Amino acid sequence: MKRALLAAITAFALPFPALASGVIDNVNGIAVDANGRTVRFRALLIDDEGKVERLLPGRYEAPPRKKKLKKGESWPKGLDFQLDGGSKTLIPGLIDAHGHVMALGLTQITLDLSGTRSLADAQGKIREYVAANPGRKWIIGRGWNAELWGLNRAPTAADLDAASADVPIWLESADGQAGWANSAAMKAANISATSKAPAGGRIEITGGKPSGVFVGKAMDLIQRVAPPPAPKDRDIALEKAQQLLLANGVTGIADMGTTIEDWQAFRRSADRGALRVRIISYAQGLDNMVLIAGPEPTPWLYDDRLRMGGLKLALDGSLSSRGAWLKADYADAPGQRGYSLIPSTQLRNMMSRAAMDNFQIAVDATGDAANSELLDAITELGQTYKGDRRWRIEKADIVDPADLPRFRQDGIIASMQPALQGANWRMAVARMGENRLKGGYAWKAMFDNRTPLAFGSGAPVTSPNPFIGMGIAMSREDATGEPAGGWMPQQRVSFEAALDGYTRQAAFAGFAEKRFGSLIPGQRADFILIDRDISIARPTDIRATQVLETWIGGKRVFMKGAKP
Known about the structure:
Blueprint: H1 2-10, E1 22-25, E2 28-32, E3 38-41, E4 43-46, E5 52-56, E6 81-84, E7 89-92, E8 94-99, H2 101-106, E9 111-112, H3 119-132, E10 139-144, H4 146-149, H5 157-163, E11 169-173, E12 178-181, H6 183-188, E13 201-206, E14 209-216, H7 220-223, H8 231-247, E15 250-258, H9 260-271, E16 278-284, H10 285-293, E17 306-314, H11 344-355, E18 360-365, H12 368-381, E19 392-395, H13 404-409, E20 413-416, H14 418-432, H15 443-448, E21 453-455, H16 466-475, H17 495-501, H18 504-509, E22 527-530, H19 539-542, E23 547-552, E24 555-559
Parallel strand pairs: 1-6, 2-7, 8-15, 9-10, 10-11, 15-16, 16-17, 17-18, 18-19, 19-20, 20-21
Antiparallel strand pairs: 1-4, 2-3, 4-5, 7-22, 11-12, 12-14, 13-14, 22-23, 23-24
Helix pairs in contact: 1-8, 3-5, 8-9, 11-12, 14-16
């Protein structure tokens, strides 16, 4: 399998071909202007640098040739290509403001439990994977969600042992905030009844012994002995991730938590001419930031395809694992409020260390206590670090309503993932109760406060398909159409705001708005052709949108039905 996948990568091994000027004609074009409003056009002119030259309100007409040239004149330059769009809808390439590129790719080549709907279903899939992969020293995977299984408890090592006890197994949860180990994996990590969780972590206990689930920083206890992906596996995973993103119309992504190993894979791909998706990297911690970028953010590399521009931190965990840091007890777990992953002083020191070298800072904050703490830190640091900082709060799932205006006051970007609300609203109600969720997934409140609102997926936590997130942002309904009319429907946003969040604002969030994101003349010609006019479609129909073609820098990089 690896040999075939590497062959697919090699197909892109030549340098990027010479760019050509052209026109995409006869389209139902929708672009986004500098203020986030939609602009209609019928033809898109691309210059020989792969940038948008003009948006034409009518069909393209070749410049007429004069009968006689005057001295010093020449015929107008012709186009290298002209494509009839067949009246299909053309929109800017979509940008995922929060994803995990390597993790997304690794889910394609490791054990993926994201489609399982019960513990028995997961156990069956684990048995099949173990049987199909004999000789592996460890089984690595992710994607389990005990909430979807209706288990009403955390899974255990015994549950995994029932599927396979002979080889160590380590499986991250769907949200990446917890891990599930079998007895063999715990033995390899020397886990016992006396093992202690580090600060910012929790070991689930059953009968006085570790049950097999490790939350937050306690995951490190197993991960330190689990084998990391080899460079060849990372190369394959990156190619898989790109194919998936391009098929879903994603032309750019903010990679939240880039390691040096990830960065090296990105560079190897770009050196081969195989990096198509634009990656805005945020380093996983200070060590990776310094190791990758050194004393300052890197320049844009490979024709605006790669840049290390910021630092990524996580202040708390997820609601599902009860790791989100709350101001009051969990409604379904009295005495628990989650926890901070980074002590207050250390958080400010880490943010200051990055800010002094002009790195942008992006911090995960899920619970209301975490968001308040992070807002306080940004307010304090903003007194020292002036200018256009674009502090990013990632997730911002549960915010105290009193804190919502503070996002705009401190020039903060709210980087939010609509699909998480669609997947988690029932669980959020169970964890906190309706009365404490007035600032839950508050997209419209952010928009009304004029807070820059960038949308992403969190992939592989949810699907990288941005049309799913767009439909949820507009409807507040999950995949089954529940609840009818939307959960907290006052937080729905318009189509224009949803499109803006996945294009212009997502680019702005990464200091890329002058380079790509909106199809403004002068930007890179990144766009997609889709099978419906999403500006007039119902949110449920938007979710079913099919991407027909994906273009990056004026070149087609994906066509539905064609082999990658």
